[in-house]
Amino acid sequence: MAFYRRRRGMSQALLAGLMGRSEDWVSKVERGERQVNRIDVLVELARQLRVTLNDLLGEPVLFEDENSNDDVPAVRDALMSPQRLSRTLFGDVLQPEYVDPEPVARVTEEAWHQYQNGAVGHVIGVLPGLIKSAQQLESGAAGRPGYARRAYAVSARIHHLAATTLSKVGEADLSWIAAERAMQAADQAEDPLVLASAARAGTHALLAVGRFDEALSLGETAARWMAPALREGDPGALSLYGMLFLRTAVAAARRQDRRTATELLNQASTAAERLGEDANYWQTGFGPSNVELHRLSAALDLGDVANVVERGEAVRPIHLPIERQVTHAIDLARALSMLARDDDALRVLLDAEQKAPQLVRHSSMVREVVRTMYRRAPVSNGKSSPLLGLAERCRAVR
């Protein structure tokens, strides 16, 4: 914060005025004497300093699995291939060829399964090849209406997976590129459920870069647009519809709009009641339990920390995908840490790490929680050793 403030030529007093805070608040945050736990405040800081949220948090953007493999640059290369910019300029390079979409679709759905099981490293490893396959599918779609719709649908799913995975590991800008590609492909697929799913990817990417108003607008627009599809009683449509309300509720909570967040959560709850079960259509994990987890997440963003701890410790979402279980555990650990219940927060994080090491170790939220707990931890009698181990694995300490 101090680095970017000075680079912008701002005094502490000027930044304090722009933030509606005192100069003493700015000084204490810059010296590390005060924590900023509310994400909407962090987003506003990043906006005033004209940097991304990841820049402000100082988070690394390289993802390494347990074998020290980092394939994010390969995903970046696949997404940012210049051949995607113009078919006129690169028509000779991208010669249309027939690619059977069905094997690609099967690999894509298996990658989605791996993501929900917390194997983020595996997903990042297969994404470059999947993205290239998506490009081949799209390039061979011209003049083949039936093939084109299926090809674009598969491409939308691939880019949705890329957007969701990249936002999870802190690559917010790449996530937005992937989400935009997902929605462009979904437009061509002429399938309302494919477009609704891609819109969900868009809300993920917008939330990752702190654009809460835009995430709210996209999610609400997509939900209204697909409402007619619900008349047929398709559980997939109902799941996507409900998930759009959950994502927009998160956006509303992060901009501190309690009333809107509550209304959206209630609409999601109504959809979950109609569905009648915790299911996983379109890899949504949607149902009554997921609605409850999002209520807790929204409550945390709204500052209802004690309520999150009381209700969150009683929730046992073991039948939901591992990614959802771990996301809930991270929220609960954050709340426990805010109440200085560091031993309980550490226990929750270590349990989550056992389920999905990569999701925990590469979470910016986990890194900040662990860093805060490590600063407060006693160093005598070896009590801090489990915490130190987690801090090192998360790179919260060097």
Automatic annotation (TrEMBL):
<dbReference type="InterPro" id="IPR010982">
    <property type="entry name" value="Lambda_DNA-bd_dom_sf"/>
</dbReference>
<feature type="domain" description="HTH cro/C1-type">
    <location>
        <begin position="1"/>
        <end position="56"/>
    </location>
</feature>
<dbReference type="Pfam" id="PF13560">
    <property type="entry name" value="HTH_31"/>
</dbReference>
<dbReference type="InterPro" id="IPR001387">
    <property type="entry name" value="Cro/C1-type_HTH"/>
</dbReference>
<protein>
    <submittedName>
        <fullName>Helix-turn-helix transcriptional regulator</fullName>
    </submittedName>
</protein>
